[in-house]
Amino acid sequence: GTDPIQILWNSKKVIIVPGYGMALAQAQQGVKRLYDTLVAQGKDVSFAIHPVAGRMPGHMNVLLAEVDIPYEKLLEMDEVNPQFKETDVAIVIGACDVVNPAAITAEGTPIYGMPILRVDEAKHILVLNLDTKPGYSGVENPLYEQPNSHLLLGNAAETVANLADGLNGQPIQMKVVNKKLYETRCASTIA
To answer: What is the pLDDT of residues 22-61, one digit of tens each?
Structure first.
């Protein structure tokens, strides 16, 4: 199904990928709440930290430390990349270029050859980005077109709060776009 709440309910291993958009939306408090909710439901949750995520080295670590995400849950790229294949859900929060698989295939683009977080290998991908516009590099992101990608577009602070509310059994209205289904449906969850 395409209901992100259902996908998260059924998951065991979740990796959260924060990017510059999380910083812009100041969504880290909501991310902490989502993290706490998932952990309380017995899920294995960690964070994938790309070395250039954000606008300075360590940007994501600082923001996540501010909201008391345990440091050992912040995994560097080399450590986390092999884990995506065994991951039920990758939640991308305001990241684009650092998860863009075009870096592997699109020769001649600014990101070609850049190491990326292999979110594309997760079973399900929830993309909490403002829109589907390219990131800083200007390169379109084919991740958005994958059949297992579910786009929850808009302000990350709101979409993260919605996910946490839904997992806590509160009724929510969330627009989910799945490019391959050519439809946008409202997924409402009723407790």
So the answer is: 999 999 999 999 999 999 999 999 999 999 888 888 999 9
Q: How far, CA to CA in Å, does 152 sit from each of 106, 108, 166, 174?
A: 25, 30, 13, 7
Which residue among the candidates 3, 44, 97, 120 is catalytic per the annotation?
97
Cβ–Cβ under 8 Å, residues 92 and 124? no
Instruction: Please give the helix or strand (H or E) that residue 24 lies within, else none.
Output: helix 20-25
For residue 131, what are its two tokens?
């829109």
d(CA 165, CA 170): 5
pLDDT digit string, tens, across residues 55-105 = 888 999 999 999 999 999 999 999 999 999 999 999 999 999 999 999 999
| Residue listed under structure tokens 């994958």 | 146
97 is catalytic: yes
Listing DSSP states for 48-102 in one string gives EE-TT-SSSTTHHHHHHHHTT--GGGEEEHHHHGGGGGG-SEEEEES--GGG-TH
**Residue 23 · residue 54 · CB < 8 Å:** yes
